From TrEMBL:
Gene: dprA
The protein, known as: DNA-processing protein DprA
Stretches the record annotates as Disordered: 301-358
Family note: Belongs to the DprA/Smf family.
Domain Smf/DprA SLOG: 87-295
Natural source organism: Paraburkholderia kururiensis
InterPro entries: DprA, DprA_WH, DrpA_SLOG, WH-like_DNA-bd_sf
PANTHER family cross-referenced by the UniProt entry: PROTEIN SMF
Amino acid sequence: MHSLPMTDAELIGWLRLSCAPGVPPAALRKLLQTFGLPEAVLAQSFAALASATDTRTAQAVLAAPGPAFAEQASAALAWREEAGNWVLTLCDPAYPPMLLTMPDPPPLLYIKGQLDSLHRKAVAVVGSRSATPQGTEDAARFARAFSEAGLTVVSGLALGIDGAAHRGALTGLGGTVAVIGTGIDIVYPPSHRTLAAQIAEQGAIVSEWPLGTPARPSNFPQRNRLIAGLSSGVLVVEAAMRSGSLITARLANEMGRDVFALPGSIHAPLSKGCHRMLKQGAMLVETAEEVLEQLGVATAPRPGPAVVEAKATATRSSRSRDDRANGRSGAGESAEGMPSEPSPQRTPSLDNTASPLTPDAQRLLDALGHAPATLEILAQRTEMEEAALQRALLYLELAGRVTALPGGRFTRASRD
């Protein structure tokens, strides 16, 4: 897919309209449909503009650019000359076709990376920034399966589920697209600079914000609508009741996209948002194949064990580096269901559950979450030496906080 060449004057016209305060994307699209290119829009009278939209929009279009506009325009012109950088307008044939089905597509998109990534069928994988170990594993696993089936995986480059989804997708064929809530020249969070570089090389980073725009809370709901718009379906892995992921899911539903959610334990806070979505009609899924089938995508052949283990090792190492860069242990609660097997009798407690745990025991309990896990999984999540892991596990069993299950698995005791 190739972008049409655009003169500096044409780009400045687009920048002036897209940066004008008080001109929402839907109104700008109406003006472009009525009068043509930005130069023609800017040449109209107040009466003509007001007749096509309203008086407030007409005033905003004809207002003189702010004092920072010249610098913004100069920066954009210089930025697009760099290799791999693109500025696409609504009139460009390379503009992502899925966004054109939205009622308010951005008039300008800043893109770094491969334009083809924005023209393949895509699925969004989103969720909590404070993801559990199980959640990040699920996000990476689902994203990897989607990418291996040829889908582009769309997410928001945030910590937690987003980052795990991007990493999982980078190991497949479809690649990944990161939609960000800052200027394209800013990586947020800064700890994802390496990940952002990998995405730009194998996929694309997309922003509708002018260069230099910092991370503001108000930007991210608007970013979420683009994540939904680019995708044929949205999968929410983990979400609290007030998660931004629920905004993405709601917008996707309003646009007629499929919405999927992973179920979890009724005890896990990050399952509550997913459960709310399921009550409202989202499709409950337990495997990536269910999503692919709903989207009409053939399942890719599964890789051999050696490939799976190599990819899993790379994912764990990358996640561990980002967690350390953010001062996070990576430990958290899992959001999968409780075990189906009958729970065996709990070992009599030698300690009250309200008593403080040792640091190693607390670390292990956090990593265990609410889903059964084997000793090998716990070792990967905690990065504890085997002897320390065994001591902490025994301590938690004797304290009545952990119960052993058949098959060498462990789970939280029911009162936790």
